[in-house]
Amino acid sequence: xxxxxxxxxxxxxxxxxxxxxxxxxxxxxxxxxxxxxxxxxxxxxxxxxxxxxxxxxxxxxxxxxxxxxxxxxxxxxxxxxxxxxxxxxxxxxxxxxxxxxxxxxxxxxxxxxxxxxxxxxxxxxxxxxxxxxxxxxxxxxxxxxxxxxxxxxxxxxxxxxxxxxxxxxxxxxxxxxx
Length: 178
Hints:
Layout: H1 2-15, E1 27-35, E2 46-53, H2 60-73, H3 101-112, H4 128-133, H5 158-173
Antiparallel strand pairs: 1-2
Helix pairs in contact: 3-5
């Protein structure tokens, strides 16, 4: 597995050559590793789980296939009993033009609520990507900070919740909704 991990480091360096103006480069992280049954035994198997984050224009299955072909092409891995199963989780990136109706309406609602909103890209996944993939324009908005998400103690300041409420009230109240 050490040889596979070194090959993955090289592949990750290749991925970092790709760039998207809002979200940067795709990422590859070895998120889990399992193997061995005891300190005095040679492991009979080792498995890793990889988190490969795609760019908005990338297809997750194509990204998986590229990774698979890369690993299969590495000379130092030839002859090793490597299995590369399909992804367990797949999320498509999303990108919505800054001048699209949902973005413009949300920015306007923010201005009316005295909460100027900034258009940005993020490297995490939301259900909005599934909507965009189904040709339903969507953008992500909400109170809080991603730094507090998925932590042992998640929290959002009440002031942020109230401000987000005002933005949503303006969004829904203007011309009968989104």
